[in-house]
Amino acid sequence: MRKGIVQLVAIGVVIGVLVTLVAVLFQWLPTSASEEFDRIQDIYWFATWISIVIFAVVGAVVVYSVWKWRVPLDDDMDGPPIHGHTGLEIAWTAVPAILVIAIGIVSAVVMSQNGRAGNRPLEVNAIGQQFTWKFVYSDYDDLTSGELVLPVGREARFTMTAVDVIHSFWVPNFGQKQDAVPGIETTILVTPNRTGEFEVVCTELCGLGHATMRAKARVVSQAEFDRWVQEKRA
Amino acid sequence: MTDVSLHAEALHDHHGPPEANQSSRVDARTLGMLLFIGSEIMLFGSFFAAYFFVRVVNPSAPPEWPPEGYHFPVFVAGVNTAILVTSSFTMHWALQSIKRGQRAGFLAGMVLTFVMGLAFLLTQVVEYVNVGFNTGDGAFASVFFGLTGLHGAHVAIGLSLLGMVIIRGFRGHFSPEHHHGVELPGIYWHFVDVMWIVVYATVYLL
Amino acid sequence: MTPSHHGTPQAEYPAHFEPPHGPTWRLLFGPGLVRGGWMAGAGFVFGMLLVLALRWWWSWDPYWNTEVILAVAGMVTAPIGFLAGIGSFDYWLHYISGRPTRPEDHSGHGARSWKDYFRVNTDHKVIGIQYLVTTFVFFTIGGLMAMFFRAELAQPGLQFVDSQTFNGLVSVHATLMIFLFVIPAFAGLANFAVPLMLGAPDMAFPRLNALSFWLLPIAGIMFVASFLAPGGAFGAGWTGYAPLAEGQPLGQTFFNMGVQWAGASSIMTALNFLVTIITMRAPGMTFWRMPLLVWANFTTSLLVVIATPFIAGSQFFVMFDRIMHTSFFTPEGGGYVLGYQHIFWFYSHPAVYIMMLPGFGIVSEVISSMSRKPIFGYRLMALSLMGILVLGFSVWAHHMFVAGMADWLRVPMMITTLLIAIPTGIKVFSWVATLWRGRIHLTTPMLFALGFVTMFVIGGLSGIYLGSVPIDIAASDTYFIVAHIHYVLFGGSVFTIFAGIYYWFPKMTGRMYSERLGKWHFWLTFVSFNATFFPMHYVGLRGMPRRVFDYDSAFGDLNFAISIASFVLGASFIVFVYNMITSWVRGPIAEANPWRARTLEWQVSSPPPIFNFDEIPQVVGGPYEYGVPGARHAIMSPSKEAQEVHA
Description:
Chain B has helices at residues 3-13, 28-57, 74-99, 103-130, 139-170, 180-205.
């Protein structure tokens, strides 16, 4: 019996290690370029460790059972009449409950942090239409641009809408996404914390040009941002 | 297989199925009708949901309801409500009559119910013609026609069921022992009536 | 029911139909597919004339409106004509016209030749097989569409199709898989097995059952036919969001209407199951002695009856907006765009449980009999099904976390979404505990059941990620979702459908499938399935959105690999089809109970007698009492045993 438990745990560890290698050897997440995505990535890793453990446990029991107790197809005997085990059933109700509640709490905290606008965020209106994006900077006399330029380190609040069908605003490296919906205004906050060139991708099927509805996004220093604003206004 | 053996096999098979066990006090056909009505209630639910979204959730919903410029005849619809509610009473009377073997009362009740249901529907059609707005005239009109139209369609279904009862009733199909075919359409008719009260209250009164 | 005695060769016709004269007359005017064909045409003409007449009367110019005429004549009156033509209304029309009832001669019941599968048949076993064959035809069509767009996606840019066709392919693929495969395939398996498991001679409403089946090909033809519409197939996804759906060309109407037919079929079947399970259980079969497949179909049927009308409503509103210019979802007229999503998802979330719970039931049957152990924690397994049913109605807005709905709604929906992992987890752990110390027979159904358990855990875990609002905000509408969907629907539902088909194949056909080919099928499928869908988690998180024909070139290599893997997955299906056909035609004759299982369907012959049982069995114990000496689930011939006792 003890030998069996050791073997079971060994299988579980092997599965766990393999899955962990898959989780860490590939870069599953794009490089985070925003504070919001940093927080999201933390929850992602929390969920990943929990998932690895659960998958390893289930996988180990399946593999071990088939290995130890497999019989030829013409075997006639019944197995032991084990109907249940109250303690075990309570355990596997309570433990997942605790785990999902933990994920829920962590997520709610991040939700509130990612949704709380500080004072004086940079206001950007994003308007989606088939099949192009338009960004309007209401802080700068409604300066309009087809390219999204943001100053690093400053929170930006996007107020979005669409003129025809539903579109969705997403910059993968920012980790934030929200639909742009005709008839209402939606908001999302992004605080870029890394300069670079990124892409705005439409993530709601909007018709024939959905796949090509993209825009450039650039995060630059505050100085360069001011320069860009001046040039656009000239 | 030759005709003969097919025939012999057919005779052998036609001893029929064993009688199923009745594992519930609830009659199967009644349960079926109740479940069907359950799904119908959910269908109305989706129309009420649309109404709720357009009037309450929509951030640009008009402050007054009905919005500026739309009027509908609350009184006429109220009279129509009275007609439909009365028809439920005549339906009940019809069912009670056949349970007691009073064919005249049963048939009279059924015909009255049908006539009142038809009157309700015709009144609604006239109302639609004279209401002053069309389906293409905005969200208010959409939910108005949607809810009342859905209900009207169900009145039509109910009238078809009642019609079947009347045809079979005149052909002598029902008796104090066998009146399931009256009771189940009756349940459906009562559902149509109660649903109208909810629709009327929501659309015309609230 | 009085048996009828007839010496005339009228055995093929239902008793209520006046036998017509010669064979040609019978072919043209007797109930059947030929009459169904021309009555469909007549129905179309009737609908067209009706629309023209009404439009002329109301002076709606122009009188000819293709969309309205197609919607009414092609998608309402023609199908009704077809259904009337094949004879699904014949008995009821006779009944409601008040004519005297004819004694039932059961000629409309049961399969004596292959032709019986192509007509209106009241036997639940026949209907079950009709469902299964039909759904697999649409699985093939939907799968070919997937191969097609995977070929397109193997490289960035457009190579083979134009954008509208691409959108049409992904939309119709999903629509067919959901409405014409997973949901009705489970209905078909349940149709076959549940009455037998209950000890009932048939379903509560056999004629309604027959009608439910025939509604299905109508829906499927509508969806596929949309490719022929001017402007192409509906291209707004299977989710058909307004306002995109409202501006789509004519093909969208095929989606709106097809969903109604599929939904009606689903609701009628569910109603039938509920009444059957509640009122027709064998004596001694309390709810706590029902097999878990029955529990699963009971809860699924409740979901169907309650939720399906909401998708009907959502499609009605889109049709009204398109055809009658209403403003349910058009902001210019005061409509509320997000209303569509709320109404749609209020069905479509329970729909995913409709697509999974019967599979849970199948897996319980297979794992128990193939491990020769009782299901671990039977009561909690039944209760967890009920828990999923109830919770399943409270999570719909987790499909809308990025939709722009009211902020405050997100936290409650996140909580209920995460909580639903608990009853689901209970089930996974119980299956795995059933394996523990069992005597495990690694047959093909068992392989698929075990494959299901592991793959569904992956799909469920990716669902936990998505239940967290911030993670969902990053991952929503990307290929991460496509990966999640396919792990739970393919690795989940489809695996259980395969498990069920292999498991009940000997019972349905009286022959045994090839175990060798079955194993090949499983391993080919399992490996290529993972190779196809696991990398999608990666490309999704890294930045590839869904429903796109073009993508960042950085994803090119992986997409190419995924496409190749998907072709292998498609090819693996050929092994299955070959096995099914050859085994059904000339496989070894199967015994009544090849798995030595304990539920009632295994206690009768393979295939079962035409009326299932000579005598309704008496249930005396639970259905999974393996290893308990002397335990019996039921006494098959109670009167005979009673005689033996008293003798």
